[in-house]
Design brief:
The chain is α/β, with parallel strands linked by helices. It folds into two domains: 179 residues, Gcn5-related N-acetyltransferase (GNAT) (Aminopeptidase, 3-Layer(aba) Sandwich); 216 residues, NAD(P)-binding Rossmann-like Domain (Rossmann fold, 3-Layer(aba) Sandwich). The chain is built from twelve helices and 16 strands. The strands form three sheets. The protein has a seven-stranded mixed sheet, sandwiched between helices. The longest helix has 22 residues.
Length: 402
Amino acid sequence: MMSGLQSQPVFSDAAISLAGVSDSELLLTLVNSSYRGESSRRGWTTEADLIAGEVRISESALKEVLELKGSVVLVYREAETLVGCVNLQHKGDYLYLGMFSVLPEKQNAGIGRKLLQAAEELAHQWNLDAIRMSVISVRSELIAWYKRNGYADTGERIPFQEDGMSGKHLRELEFMILEKKLQQGKKILITGATGMIGGIILDRCLSHPDISEVVSLVRKASGVTHNKLHEIVVSNFSALEDLPEVYRQIDIVYYCQGVYTGAVPADEFHRITVDYPVAVAGMVQKYSPQARFCLLSGQGADRTETSRMMFARDKGIVENKLASMGFSSFHAFRPAYIYPVTPRKEPNLMYRVSRIIYPVIRMLGPKLSIRSTALAEAMFLVGLNGHKKEIFENEDILQVSS
């Protein structure tokens, strides 16, 4: 099996799943009623005026599709009813889309667009950069709908020959080949990009050739401009706006936003440390459950959630919440004292003193300090390449960054 097909596909819409052999009878009814015969005239995808008969796909042809290597059939269910489907086949460097059907009485309800989105999610997971389909060239209304959804006419035409099984053609027909080019490279979501670690990671993302888009959620505009960067100013991270186009197809999350202990009251510290990242993670999980989530946590995070220290307790709480959300992987980074390689205005007296005595702290061993560039590099690399480890203590971070 091809490497891109080894893992089970994941879709952002819970109503979409892989079809099985047990769905064969329902699939036959769905596909044939969507395109052929009088029943298809209740919807706008009907081919009844172009091809005679009641059969769009035969039982044997469907069986072949279900058993074909590199082929999956996605179904959209409402309760126990199968109302939509699409067949997706791995064809070299693109995904072929066919057997696209929605029950006539359920058309114009957005189900077709959801199936198209699932197709893009699968292509993304299989590392394919385009989706192709063939449409009867006289289906102008249907072609216009596909074009509104990002597909373009390739100029390629293929004669539509009668096969003796799927009905007699009532006129001469040909296929138009449509294609949608998908986003190249990885899509990143980052928070805290105006901070010390987030800023370094942002720079790495913008300069890396394997990353094509960076969504940056900030509390105030950064002033950074780049053709890869999509910066969104968020006034309230606890009440994020539901923006599917922003959160779809996220590959990696770098969550670097935070606040220093003592800078705000306890309730606000909890809100920034726990509620904000959980809100962001919830939105990403809704639309990109396949994402890898990297959290800038802190040394001493207590996953028993019983520590008397607010910092340790809240960091443990957020790690537990994010680890249980079902991302493809979750990674918590627990640095000790972070030495700012680029000088900055230190937030408090403790940090001012730590910066002065850093040479001494560094000599005391790898558990007590880390340079800002090393921490950012470790987070960046784990996000980009993955890692078997979930929790990275200070020594682990140093090892990854070296």
